[in-house]
Amino acid sequence: MEKIIAWAKRNMIIIFLLILCIGFGLINKTFFTSRNILNLTSQMAINALLSSGLTYVIILGGIDISVGSVAALAGVISCMVGLKFPGMNLAGSILILILSALVVGGVCGLFNGLMITRFNVVPMITTLATMTMLRGLTYIVTGGVAVFGLPSIFSFLGAGRIIKTPSEPIGLIPVVTLFTILVVFIMHTLLSKTVFGRHVYASGSNSQVAHLSGINVKRVTLSCYILCSIMAALGGVLVASKLQNGQPAACDGYEMFAIASTVLGGTSLTGGSGSVGRAMFGVAIIAVINNGMNLMHISSFWQKVVIGTIILLAVILDMAQKKKKV
Q1: How many separate domains does the chain show?
Q2: Which domain holds residue 63?
C-alpha cells in the first residue's frame, strides 16, 4: 500500500489526466472517437513546442513570457518570405518555415539571453519588454493586416495529413503531430541524456556551485533562452502554415498556456527540477480541458478561468513540496 501511495504521489499528473479523459468521455461520447483524438494531438502540437523550450528556461529558475510574440513574428516573417517564392514545392515550403523559425527564434533568444547574462536584467522584465517590442514589430512589418496569398503547398506542415483511407480521404494522421513528436523527442533527449542537459540542471539547482564546478553558467543560460525562442518560433510558423497566412495577432496569450503546461508537468518555478517528457502531460491536460469543454459547449471565457485556477493550484502544490523537502 505504501508503494502504491508513493507511486500515486509521484504520478499525480498522470492520474489527473486519466480522470479528466474518463470524465469527458462519459459526458460526451464524441471525446473518444478516433477523429477527436487525432484532432486533439494536432491541437496539442503548438503548446508542446512552446512548453518544451520553456522547460529549459524554468529549470534554470528563469521565465520567458515573450514566446507568444516570438511565435507571431516568426509566423509573419515565414509568410513574407514564402510570398517571394510563388512556385515553391513541398521541400521548399518546409525549408522556408524551418529556416524562418531558426533565424527569428535564434535572434530573439540571443537578445533575451544577452540582456539577462550580460546586462543582468531580471528575466521577467527582459521578456516582458521583448514581448511588447516584438508584438509591436510584428504589427509594423505587416501594417496590421494578415500576410496572405500563399500557395496551398505552404499549409502542408501545419495542416497536412498523411495515410489516406476511404473514410478519411484528406488523410488520417496530422503531419504537425509527427513533426512535433520528433522535435519534442530531440528536446527531451538533449535535456535528459547529454552533458549540456546536466549543466542545465546544475545551473538551475545552484548557479554558484555550478560555476565553481567549472560550468559556464552564462553560456548555459544564453543557450537555453535561444532554444526556448527557437521552439516558440517553430510553433509560430506551424500556426502560419496551418492558417496559410501570417496573422500579426497570432499566438496572443500562448505563453500562459505554455507556462501552465510546464508547471503542471512538475517543472519547479524555483528551478533545478523538471523534464520535457513530464511537461507533455501538462500539455495534454490543457488540451483535454479545452477540447472537453468545447464539446460541452462551455464558453471560452470559463476555459480561461479553469486554466488560471489550475496554474495557481500547481504553483501552490510545487511550493508545498519544496517546504516538505526543507
Answers
A1: 1
A2: 36-325
